Description:
Layout: E1 5-13, E2 18-27, E3 30-33, E4 41-43, E5 49-52, E6 54-59, H1 80-88, H2 91-96, H3 101-113, E7 117-122, H4 126-129, E8 139-140, E9 145-146, H5 161-171, E10 175-179, H6 190-196, E11 204-208, H7 214-223, E12 226-229, H8 231-238, H9 244-250, E13 253-256, H10 268-283, H11 289-294, H12 298-303, E14 321-324, H13 331-336, E15 343-348, E16 351-356, H14 360-365, E17 370-375, E18 378-383, H15 386-397
Parallel strand pairs: 1-4, 1-5, 6-7, 7-8, 9-10, 10-11, 11-12, 12-13
Antiparallel strand pairs: 1-2, 2-3, 5-14, 14-15, 15-16, 16-18, 17-18
Helix pairs in contact: 3-15
Amino acid sequence: MLPTYSLSGMTIVTPAEIIRNGRLKVEKNRIKSLQDAAKFNVELEAGTFCYPALINVHDHLRGDYLPRIGPQNGDYYLNWSYWERDLRSSPVLEERAKISVEQMYLLSAYKNLFSGVVTVNDHFPHEFNEPLIPLLPIRVINNYTLAHECSSFDLNWGDGIEIEHNRAVERGYPFITHLEEGFDKESQSGVDILEKLNCLDDHDVLIHCIGFSDQDIQRVQRAGASVAWCPASNIFMFNVTCKIQKMIAEGVNVCIGTDSTATGAVNLLEEIRFARYVYWRMYGEELDGETLVKMVTVHPARAFWMQDKIGSLEEGKYADMLCIRPRESDPYEALVSARMEDIELMVQEGTPIYGDAKYEQLFRRRECDYTTVTVQGRKMCVKGDPAGLLERVRRAVGFKKVLDYLPLDG
Ligand SMILES: [Fe+2]
C-alpha cells in the first residue's frame, strides 16, 4: 500500500489557476486534494513553484546523442531525407554505435527527466521500444499508433497510414506522424494525403508541419488535430519553422517537442526558450509565458488523449509534479526561465523520481529505487543510477564523454 502524503508551502500552477501557499494531497498515484494536508506532510522550500510535470510531445529516444548532425557549410535541407543521408555517414553515429540501445534509451530518458519531463513519446514503432520502456525512469507512452511520414520516401513504419489511423480511432489513441518536414512538392502535400485517406482528425499528432500553407493550418484546426512544434530542430535543419503565429491565432492545439538532440535543443527547457526566441525573431513579438507553459502541459495531454490523467494539477489526475526554485516572480515566466539546476522535486504518479536530498525521506517512504548525485554542488536523489550509466557510456566510447543534458558534476 502506497503511503498517503501531502506537499505544502508552494505556489501551485495548475496551469489554469495560480494557488498561493497551496497544499496538495497525494493518495496512491493520484492527486486527492488541492486543499487538504495528510498526516505525513512535506513542507517545500519557501518560494517553490509547483507545476504539472512536463510532457515532451516528440522525441526519438534512440537518437539523443551529441554533437548534433546537420547541414554543412551554411547550407540547409530541402526535406528530412537529406538529414538521414548525413546521419548514416556521420562519425557521431559510429561513436554512438559503441553504446547499447538500452543505454541509449536510458540516456534519453534522463535527458527528459533532468528537464522536468515525466511523459514523453518516443517516435519509433512499438517493436523498437516496447521491451525498453519498462526499464526507463519516466513514462514513455505506449498507447499510440504511427506512421513515419506521409510521403513516398518515408521509412514505412507501422502497418500503413489507414490501418494505423483506424487503430488509433478504435482504441482512443493518438496517431503520430511527421508531416510536411520539407519544401519539395511531395513533402508539402501531407495534409492532402491525410484528408484523401480520410485520416485527418483529432487523433492526429502532426510533427513539424513546416510546409503548411494557411489553408493547411485551417484544415488541421477544423479537424481538431494537434501539431508538434520543434523549432530548434527546424531552424537547425531548414533555417525556418512552421507558421506558428497563424497556428496559434487559428486555435490549433500546438505542443512543443524537442525532436532528438541529434537536431533539436539539448532538452525541453532549452526548447521552450528557443521557441520564444524564434517567435521573436519571426514576428518581433513576445510569445507569452502562459501559452508556452500550456504547450508543454495541457496541450500535449490532449494530443495524447490523456487529458483525464496528465497535463494539469487537478483532483483525480495522476500526481505528476515538477517543483522548481523560481528565477522570476511570475509563475509562467518562472517556468520559461527554469534551468536544470533549478529543479527542487519531481514526482511521477505520487512517487518522487528526482529532487533535493532534503526530501530523501519521501523517496524512502514511497520506496523509490534511487541513488544520489551532485548537481552544481547540490546533493540530489534520482530514480535509478544515471551516474553509473554515464560511467558505462564513457567506458564504451573510450573517453570522458560529456552530454549536455546530464547535469551531473564530474
Ligand atoms: Fe522527429
